[in-house]
Design a protein that fits this description.
alpha+beta, FAD/NAD(P)-binding domain, six-stranded mixed β-sheet, D-Amino Acid Oxidase, Chain A, domain 2, binds flavin-adenine dinucleotide, 11 helices, 2 domains, 21 strands
């Protein structure tokens, strides 16, 4: 088949490799280009927690190898700031913390070596039959994958309908120097303003490092955004109950708008939406990219199982298989966000009960880990 991928982020590039290795002719379009990012000495502010399923897929694609920029984590300690409830997940290989740009660079290397055609251009729209409209040209494809991130401009112009899932928030992310070592433990605290996570990073120049993700309601975010980075670091040290001691930003933190969304349908004829184009979720348990790599794994299996199927059947099958995972994760993230923000006594009780139950029962912890990819 002649396959076109719209979007050269990590999910689009992984999808391109999977399609090419299944024997198809693949072209990727991305108006922002295909240059690898130059990574500085300090870890970039955008870091992903990737689960074993995502890293296995990346390893199969030749895009995962031990590296000094990758940090394994063996446990995750979650506490509630307004009760004594807590839960700890422990597993020899719970997952890895890695810069998002590092992952994309690895995939770009594989794509460049594989001979996949990369075009730095914008597609205006695509018909359900697979005709791509460019500014001055038209191209026909048998199967088109939309992986252009949250904005989904081309997908919307091609007939996909976005369902707004609400939860408008803003996250602050950044790399922090910390006083105490993290011992490979991810820390998360549910605060009245929103969940704050300090994720382990490799040490740098004999100093300890963690990556911050703090999702905040818009009003609080606007207030905190006015603080100096020293004041913000102090707030984070205090709010995280000094779990990693005194914290200090090593580069400027970044503020990122958050919300949840999905598409009414993920497939239209021979068109398939995956990654953040198909599902935007809150980064509560760091699941977005893991869900996207899950979409790619499902595409890989479908192409292998039905080697001579047409594009519309592949699109339909992948969309059907992924629907349950995507819906479940979005629902759970929304529920978590409501329950862990609320000050209502009943919800507080529920929150405490949920964490205690998870802490006591290994099967519940395994289920949550399974969801986390
Ligand atoms: C604060 C925060 C923390 C997160 N932490 C985690 C985590 O710990 N673990 C995890 O799994 N996930 C995490 N995520 C989610 C993760 O960042 C996303 O799920 C992931 O980036 C989605 O990848 P993607 O390739 O679908 O989209 P993107 O990374 O957005 O890539 C989209 C690509 O499409 C291109 N593009 C844009 N417009 C067009 C167009 N019109 N035509 C063609 N190409 C186009 C862009 O240039 C880009 O290359 C986090 C997200 C946030 C906001």
């Amino acid at each position: 088949m002649k396959i076109v991928i719209i979007g050269g982020g990590s999910i689009g590039l992984a999808a391109a490799l999977v399609c090419q290795r299944a024997g198809h002719s693949v072209t990727v379009f991305d108006p922002n280009g295909f240059e690898p990012k130059v990574l500085s000495g300090e870890a970039d502010a955008r870091v992903w927690a990737l689960g074993p399923k995502s890293t296995s897929l990346l390893a199969e694609l030749g895009a995962w190898a031990p590296d000094e920029r990758v940090c394994a984590y063996q446990s995750m300690h979650v506490i509630d700031a307004r009760s004594d409830a807590k839960v700890t997940f422990t597993e020899p290989a719970l997952g890895y913390l890695v810069e998002a740009d590092w992952v994309r660079n690895q995939l770009l290397t594989q794509v460049t070596e594989s001979g996949i055609h990369c075009v730095c251009d914008r597609i205006e729209s695509v018909s359900e039959g697979g005709v791509l409209i460019l500014q001055n040209d038209q191209i026909a494809a048998d199967f088109v994958v939309f992986a252009e991130g949250r904005q989904a401009h081309t997908a919307i112009a091609s007939g996909f309908e976005v369902v707004d899932g609400g939860y408008r928030q803003r996250a602050v992310v950044g790399t922090l120097r910390c006083e105490h070592p993290h011992h490979g433990e991810a820390f998360q605290i549910f605060t009245e303003y929103g969940p704050l996570a300090l994720l382990p990073l490799p040490d740098h120049e004999n100093g300890h490092r963690v990556s911050l993700v703090w999702s905040l309601d818009l009003e609080v975010a606007s207030e905190f955004q006015e603080c100096s980075i020293e004041e913000l670091a102090l707030k984070i040290s205090q709010t995280s109950e000094w779990s990693r001691g005194a914290l200090e930003f090593v580069n400027n933190p970044i503020w990122i708008p958050l919300s949840q969304h999905s598409l009414k349908h993920d497939s239209l004829g021979c068109l398939l939406a995956i990654g953040d184009t198909s599902h935007g979720i809150l980064p509560l348990a760091g699941l977005g990219a893991n869900l996207g790599f899950g979409d790619v794994s499902s595409l890989k299996e479908t192409l292998e199982k039905h080697p001579s199927a047409h594009g519309d059947r592949i699109a339909r099958t992948v969309a059907r298989e992924r629907r349950f995972d995507q819906r479940t994760v979005a629902m759970v993230m929304g529920l978590f966000s409501n329950v862990f923000r609320s000050d209502q006594p009943l919800l507080q009780l529920g929150r405490s009960f949920a964490l205690r139950t998870a802490d006591r029962h290994a099967t519940i912890r395994s289920l949550i880990q399974e969801l986390a990819g």
